[in-house]
Structures are given as C-alpha cells and as structure tokens.
Amino acid sequence: ATFESTLSLEIKRLCEMVELGAGEVSGIQAVINWVQGFGYTSADDVHLAVVLITYTYLGLVLTLAQGFLVRRIAGRVSDGALAVFGAVIATIGYGLLSLAVRNADYVLLSLAMAIVTVGFAFIPPAIQSLISRRTRADQQGHVLGVGQSVSSLARILGPVFGIRLFAQSPPLPFWSVTALMFVGIVFTIAATGTGRSKLRETASE
User: Fold this and answer.
1) Is residue 40 a contact partner of residue 119, using CB atoms and an 8 Å limit?
2) For 179-188, what is each residue's pLDDT tens digit?
3) Confidence (pLDDT) at 203
4) In percent, how much of the chain has pLDDT > 70?
5) What pTM does this model have?
6) CA distance linking residue 58 with residue 33, whole number of Å
7) Dist. CA 115–CA 93, nearest whole Å
8) Are 127 and 191 in contact, with CB atoms under 8 Å apart?
9) Would you call 190 helix, strand, or coil by DSSP?
10) Are 26 and 101 in contact (CB under 8 A)?
C-alpha cells in the first residue's frame, strides 16, 4: 500500500526535476518527450500521463506474472516456498526502489517496480492457500475474514505513513518497507516451517 501511494509522488518529483533542470533523471526524459508528442504540454498533464503509462506498464507486468509464472510454478512447489520466494523477490525489488529513488533513476525505478510486482504476484495466492490449509474447516470463514481485515487495515495505514515518510525524504518509505518485508520473510519462514495441514487432519478423522 505504501508502494502504490508513493509511486505517483515519486514520478511527479522526477518530472519536476526535469522541468526545473534540477538534475539528470535517467530515462524519464524520453517518456516525457513521447507524451508531449501527443499534444500534452502542461506540466500537470505530463505528470498524469507519465503516471498512467507507468501504472499501465505495472499492470502488464502483473498480468504476465500471474498468467504465466505463478500458474506454472504454483503446482510444482509448496505454498510456503511460494510465499517465501515471492517475499524475497519483493524485498529485493524494494531495495532497488530505494536506490532508484535516491539516485533519481527512472530506468532503475522501472526495473525495481517490475521486480516488486512479480514478487507480490506470488504472495496473495500462496498466503490464502496457507491460511485455508492451516485452518480447520469450521474456522476457515473466521480466520480468512480476519486476514482480509488485516489486509484492509494495512491499505489504510500504508498510505498514511508512506506519504508522511516521503515528505521527510523520498527514499525513506522504500527503505522502511524493505526492512518490514525482511521481517515478513522471517515470519513467513517461521510460520511455514511449523504446523500441519488441517485439511489432512480433517480427512483422517
């Protein structure tokens, strides 16, 4: 949620750096020139167009990741391994995002965003499957509901803290999320290494 809420702010910052000549921004000048070729001249229109192009690019990456990678790998490895793999990939992506924001590098930013998106393509289906398998049939609705509530709470709090951190220093929210994702990896490994499938227990009973 922090990534999604601060990404447009970072892109706007990079566009403003180009407009003001405040520094060299790798890669984004070509995108701005392409946008201006369609008749967008005002700064606000250019900002919006570059943000939309970026999110379209991320949507394409997510579609390819879920449609090809996740579908082909999911049936070959355990849900726990899938969740850990996705978390590790996303964490690497966040680390690269932090470097891209610090160096004002749109090319690296685009690569890092793709890595984060691919990582997160693996996490939700794996986590949902783990919750379902590790919960007894008569408790699944309750536990899955709690999981959805926690996810919704994160999407409320993520932008609040992310935007405040971005206002202090643009790389700060991305470094913070990198650290939090590392903690998440530790918890995921610990959780997937313990416990048994409740579906098997129910079947045996």
Assistant:
1) no
2) 999 998 998 8
3) 47
4) 93
5) 0.84
6) 20
7) 5
8) no
9) helix
10) no
The whole-number pLDDT of residue 22 equals: 65
> Is 98:174 a contact under the CB 8 Å cutoff?
yes
Nearest residue to 11 (alpha-carbon basis) of 99, 110, 98: 110
**The tokens of 72 are what?**
């082909």
Instruction: Determine the Cα–Cα distance for residues 75 and 96; give it in Å rounded to an integer.
Output: 29
Token pair 């690569």: residue: 111
Which amino acid belongs to residue 98? S
Angle between helices 2-20 and 106-133 (to 10 degrees): 180
The residue written with tokens 């709690």 in the block is 146
E strands along 45-190, which residues? none
What's at 143, amino acid-wise? V
Low-confidence ranges of the chain (pLDDT < 70): 22-24, 194-205
Angle 150-152-156 (CA atoms, 0-180°, nearest 5)?
A: 110
Distance of alpha carbon 185 from alpha carbon 84, whole angstroms: 6
